[in-house]
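Work Package 4 report. The design task specified in the project plan requires that, given a folded chain encoded as structure tokens, an amino acid be chosen for each position. We show below one input record used in the internal validation round.
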């Protein structure tokens, strides 16, 4: 039986063996596959480019032959010219040039942000100069001397003309009778022959004879002007002026209103000490002890302004520059000096007094703004203006400068004045202030102009909210 089974298995029977069915593809499937293959063949190859390394500088990158030909050719292409024009427009659109002063603090002592458009965000090489003084000592005139690029020979004439009352505008022809219209017309004077307006020459407004007779101050709040050399000049209202009491108080003047005005002026003085490189204190006679005490009180009440509270900086800069607060250079300036004030004995007396008065002050009195050179400290030859002064006759110099009074006969060289000309002294004053060391105002290094403006806003808010001034007001009589 086993043999029979083997035979049955080994024998090939066409009927019993199963056949696999053959599946034929349709024409539609073939066309789809062919179309897919064609689409894959027609696709463009993807090219992968390696980006240039940003660490390699622009000058070391290889140049194509076309760019090399453009560089070697004397005529630049239009594309490069357009790029340069766009860059110039962007650089010029950063800030505007100032033509007249704007308010940093308005009449109500509120911070004004109108000067932000005149500040450059990429410039950190600037100089801030502030000035303090009583009413009518010539603060605005001194800042006008610093703001001028060149000191002309007619400077004294322009200063004397600034005290005159401006001429009122003439009536229009329609308001003048017909028979008098020909008489009002002048054909001899041309626009070129007319004298230039002093108000266009000097940026800060100075007192004329009308302000002087009425006893009214000219500057209100703090005015700011930025020169083309990026020197920021700050002119403030006078200290403890009676006209300020009449303007600020609506009720009859009382001791309370006078104390409020005193504290407001102390806050302005402390504010200028916090935001300036150079602080000029002006007097027109030697010397007011109350003024010295006022400067000492403003320095004593000035709060410490840290960079973290004043400027929004990153954590690294605030930690790396956690040093103490800097203090401005103090320049003591005497205006309208007489003949006896320029003697070596008088200069020595002034310097000894101020040296003892500010011996405990942090304000910098030895900054190189001297009337004569000190051979022991600096080797600059600056004796060309004041030749009669020396360390032997006047002692060690400090930041003291004298400006003479301008008389109507200033052009008469035969009169002995006892000092150099006003133009030479004005040049020397401007040269000293612009050449002073520009220290860091805040803890932040390389602070830009806009960063300084933001610091000014925060500093004024801190000073206005400081309780030291309120406590000081309680002890005033």
């Amino acid at each position: 039986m086993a043999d029979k089974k083997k035979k049955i298995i080994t024998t090939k029977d066409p009927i019993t063996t199963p056949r696999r069915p053959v599946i034929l593809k349709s024409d539609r499937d073939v066309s789809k596959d062919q179309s897919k293959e064609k689409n894959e063949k027609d696709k463009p190859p993807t090219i992968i480019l390696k980006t240039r390394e940003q660490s390699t500088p622009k000058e070391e990158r290889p140049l194509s032959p076309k760019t090399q030909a453009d560089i070697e050719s004397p005529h630049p292409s239009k594309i490069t010219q357009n790029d340069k024009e766009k860059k110039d427009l962007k650089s010029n659109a950063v800030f505007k040039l100032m033509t007249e002063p704007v308010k940093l603090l308005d009449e109500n002592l509120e911070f004004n942000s109108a000067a932000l458009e005149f500040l450059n965000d990429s410039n950190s090489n600037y100089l801030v100069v502030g000035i303090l003084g009583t009413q009518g000592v010539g603060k605005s005139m001194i800042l006008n001397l610093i703001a001028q690029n060149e000191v002309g020979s007619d400077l004294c004439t322009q200063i004397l003309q600034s005290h005159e009352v401006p001429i009122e505008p003439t009536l229009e022809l329609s308001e003048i009778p017909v028979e008098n219209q020909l008489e009002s017309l002048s054909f001899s004077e041309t626009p070129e022959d007319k004298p230039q307006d002093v108000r266009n020459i000097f940026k800060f407004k100075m007192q004329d004879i009308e302000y002087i007779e009425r006893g009214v101050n000219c500057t209100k709040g703090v005015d700011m002007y930025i020169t083309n050399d990026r020197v920021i000049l700050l002119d403030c209202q006078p200290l403890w002026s009676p006209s300020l009491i009449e303007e600020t108080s609506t009720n009859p003047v009382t001791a309370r209103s006078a104390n409020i005005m005193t504290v407001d002026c102390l806050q302005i003085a402390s504010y200028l000490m916090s935001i300036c490189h150079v602080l000029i204190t002006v007097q027109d006679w030697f010397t007011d002890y109350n003024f010295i005490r006022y400067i000492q009180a403003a320095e004593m009440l000035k709060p410490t302004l840290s960079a973290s509270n004043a400027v929004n900086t990153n954590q690294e800069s605030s930690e790396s520059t956690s040093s103490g607060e800097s203090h401005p250079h103090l320049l003591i300036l005497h205006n309208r000096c007489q003949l006896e004030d320029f003697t070596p004995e008088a200069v020595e007396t002034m310097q000894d007094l101020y040296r003892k008065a500010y011996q405990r002050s942090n304000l910098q009195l030895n900054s190189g703004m001297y009337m004569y050179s000190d051979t022991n400290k600096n080797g600059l030859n600056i004796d060309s203006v004041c030749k009669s002064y020396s360390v032997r006759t006047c002692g060690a110099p400090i930041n003291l400068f004298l400006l003479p009074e301008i008389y109507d006969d200033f052009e008469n060289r035969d009169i002995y004045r006892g000092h150099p000309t006003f133009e030479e002294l004005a040049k020397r004053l401007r040269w000293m202030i612009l050449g002073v060391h520009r220290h860091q105002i805040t803890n932040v290094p390389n602070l830009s102009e806009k960063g300084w403006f933001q610091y000014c806003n925060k500093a004024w808010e801190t000073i206005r909210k400081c309780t030291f001034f309120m406590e000081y007001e309680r002890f005033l009589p």
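Residues 249 and 257 are 7 Å apart (CA to CA). Validation will be extended to a larger panel in the next phase.
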